[in-house]
Amino acid sequence: MARARIVMAKSARRGEVVEIKTLVPHAMESGFRRDAVGKPVPRHIITSLAVTYAGAEVFRMEMFPAIAANPYVMFATVATETADVVFTWTDDRGGVMRETRRLEVT
Amino acid sequence: MSGRRPRACALAALLVAAGLAVVGAGASGVAGAEAGREIEPRQRKPGSAFLSPTVRTQQEDLAANPGMLWVEQGGRLWSEPAGRSRKACATCHGEAAGSMRGVAARYPAVDKATGRLMNLEARIIACRTSQQAAPAPAHESEDLLALTAFVAHQSRGLPISVRIDEAARPHLEAGRALYRQRIGQLNLSCAQCHVESWGRRLRSETISQGQATGYPIYRLEWQTLGSLYRRLLSCFRGVRAEPPRPGSDEHLALELYLAWRAGGLAVETPAMRR
User: Residue B3 and residue B131: Cα distance in Å, rounded?
Assistant: First the structure.
């Protein structure tokens, strides 16, 4: 599972509300489970999703152990100018996944 | 029948002879439990019909359906050269949207060259090893799940329709017999839940028809994608029975029968299930 999946419009009119849907592959291992021999499975979760648009942060979310695997997050922002939307997921082992999508504003 | 399952090699022959009598004798108290009953085509419902509206909505919205992570990954593997041949799937098959459309709806199928019954996973493994000269992807591995999901997704919405010819019929009948065979410590057959009792409650859950329409599926219980075989394991464990080995004649016969009894229902891959 290599990459996140992002579904959003490629272009929008200035002032329009743009809906953005993100899915990211991650086990979100809660740290509360035990394996077949009773050993605790170490916690390994995404702790934050931060999204910038034209360099400004437009969305941030903290995540905790109760969130299911492969988190799906939907949010919206307002189209202001043609610019990159940058998505950054950070996990508790320093893992970082980054994706960029261009939003054309007409 | 005792809780012990008969030896694998003798099972198919035994079932054909004993299946009717066993179900008939054991089910006298269950309403509408005559042996040989199938769910009529117009009464067939996919697994998604038994989901909560929220999970069903998530399955239908491909931006929210987590199974699409595997489908996308499978799409990347499709066009990536593999093995000593340095051929990709796309080298021979081109655009999957055209070449693979409808393929999954026809599987399992008897391979003309070898005469063996193959499910979609077996077909992909065979292509990987013989055409691409690549190592066989392991059952339930991320790569095999991704490729299977990608290929099956190309048939999304098409009716399931397996070909039952002279070569396939013995497998179908073996699968049908297995489906009706009481097994395990709980002494239950697949049919007792999924033909005779669907729509009724098993604790908090509604029993589905067990129609295999959307494999590989993203199962919430697993928190990941899994094959039809993995799902079957859950049912075998549920009735405390010894499961068939993956890729064995019994496993594939059961998959063929499942595809046949789901005939006419639309492929849902990647489906979401509880």
Answer: 44
For the record, the structure tokens of B134 come out as: 């690549």
- Distance, CA of A52 to CA of A84 (rounded, Å): 8
| Distance between CA atoms of residues B264 and B234, nearest Å | 25
- Cα angle A80, A84, A85; round to 5: 85
B193 three-state secondary structure:
helix
Chain B residues near residue A1 by CB distance under 8 angstroms: 69-70, 73, 142, 146
Question: Which has more pLDDT, B11 or B56?
Answer: B56
Contact call for B69 and A74, based on CB within 8 A: no
Q: Quick check: A16 and A78 in contact, CB under 8 A? A: yes
First to last CA, chain A: 35
**Closest Cα of chain A to B13: distance in Å?**
37
Helix, coil or strand: residue A47: strand
Neighbours of A47 (CB within 10 A): 14
ipTM: 0.92
Beta bridge partners of B217: B226, B271
* Beta strand pairing call for B205-206 and B224-226: unpaired
Is residue B154 predicted with pLDDT exceeding 70? yes
**pLDDT tens per residue across span B79-93:** 999 999 999 999 999
- Nearest Cα of chain A lies from the Cα of B89 at a distance, in angstroms, of 19
Residue B40 tokens read as 């009529």
Q: Report the Cα B131 to chain-centroid distance in Å.
A: 25
Rounded Cα–Cα distance for residues B65 and B55 (Å)? 9
